[in-house]
Amino acid sequence: MRIRKKAPKPSARRPPLFFIGYGGPAPAPDELRTWYDVQYGGPLTIRPAQNEPDAWQAGHGPWTAHLVIPFPGDQVAPILQQLAWEHKQMGAIAPSAVTPKDAADTVLFAARLARGLTLLTQGTAYDLATEAYLNPSDWQDRSLSIFRTADHVAVTHGDDPEREWSYTLGLGKFALDDLETFQAKGLPATGAAERLLAAADEILRTGQNPKVGSTVQLPSLGLTARITRHRTISPGGKLVILREVAF
């Protein structure tokens, strides 16, 4: 993470990054603050959000996030119908509004808070961007100074009658388009996933979407990625903006 001179302005209107499902009582702000300070050095600050019951603004240095726990009861039922868990209560974590260059730091901060709430409640976190479910044992225990793209971006494989189709989910967290690539049938999908994550890592480093026709150097693999197309798809009804990458 890189220290910023100015903290981004907190925003309660950003879409959530994580839902946290749990069964017991919601942890008190002091519990989350104590856990975070032990794990990551702190100091974590938590203060009530204006005009929002059960909502909090959390901050550590220049990084901020918006927490709602417990989620309002009248809003929980329709969300629970879409999630594969049996938790009856839930919370949500949304990041501050940031530019793509600042997003990695803020997303990492929000993910650490989600890990804390998952552990404190012994519940389950749902990553809305990657559609991943994270139980307490699923979180990677890394220091706050370590950012790894694969912790925040997933590679999935779609249906195409003629080619193997792979694409990322999760770059939208950083205000960036996701990436897709095609290869001949029969080639191992692990190779495509490795190349896509390497390209995502470089694009996150620059903090901007590469233009169609441009190239991205992948020094970790000794490859050059070329952006060949830009399109929007809706797998399962979810809008995903993609840039096709050829290697």
Structure summarized in a few sentences:
This protein has four helices and 13 strands.
Secondary-structure element series:
EHEEEHEHEEEEEHEEE
Unreliable spans: 1-12
How much of the residues is beta strand, in percent? 25-35%
In terms of quaternary structure, the protein is single chain
State the end-to-end CA separation: 29 Å
If you average the pLDDT, what whole number results? Answer: 89
| Alpha-beta content class | alpha+beta
- Total beta strands: 13
Largest sheet: 7 strands, antiparallel
Distinct helical segment count: 4
Structure overview:
The chain has four helices and 13 strands. By secondary structure, the protein is an alpha+beta fold. It has helices at 29-40, 73-80, 100-121, 189-206; strands at residues 18-22, 45-48, 55-60, 63-68, 89-95, 124-127, 132-134, 154-158, 163-169, 178-184, 215-218, 223-233, 240-246. Helix 1 crosses helix 3 (100-121). The radius of gyration is 19 Å and the shape is globular.
